[in-house]
Design brief:
This protein is low in regular secondary structure and 104 residues long. It has one helix at 72-76; strands at residues 9-11, 33-35, 57-59, 83-85. It has a four-stranded parallel sheet, with no helix packed on it. Strand 3, helix 1 and strand 4 form a beta-alpha-beta unit. The longest helix has 5 residues, at 72-76. The radius of gyration is 13 Å and the shape is globular.
């Protein structure tokens, strides 16, 4: 069993991170807060948080994101999820139907 299973908060803000592995949160079932702000991310995997059922807050502010994968919000459509921060990125459009499967 992975030692990250008990992890509740992950903060890797203010680094020079440019890419995220789709399996980054694969062994983090108790993760509630992910701070990925102030990095150099240009994309994020659509299934990034699919295996973090307790995630409540995902912070992606001040990155270089140019688009949001259509599948991202569908993996966040659960009662306990409360905030997705995308402020100060390079978004120019949002995919059609982005909020179609959400219950926010």
């Amino acid at each position: 069993r992975a030692k990250t299973a008990g992890l509740e908060v992950l903060s890797v803000a203010s680094n020079e991170i440019t890419q995220l592995s789709p399996d980054l949160f694969a062994n983090t079932p108790n993760l509630t807060l992910a701070m990925l702000a102030y990095n150099q991310l240009t994309t994020i995997p659509s299934n990034l948080v699919a295996r973090s059922p307790r995630l409540e807050f995902l912070n992606l502010i001040y990155n270089q994101l140019q688009d949001i994968p259509a599948g991202l919000l569908s993996t966040l459509a659960r009662p306990n999820f409360s905030a997705l921060r995308l402020d100060n990125n390079r978004l120019t459009s949002l995919p059609f139907g982005l909020f179609a499967t959400t219950t926010f």
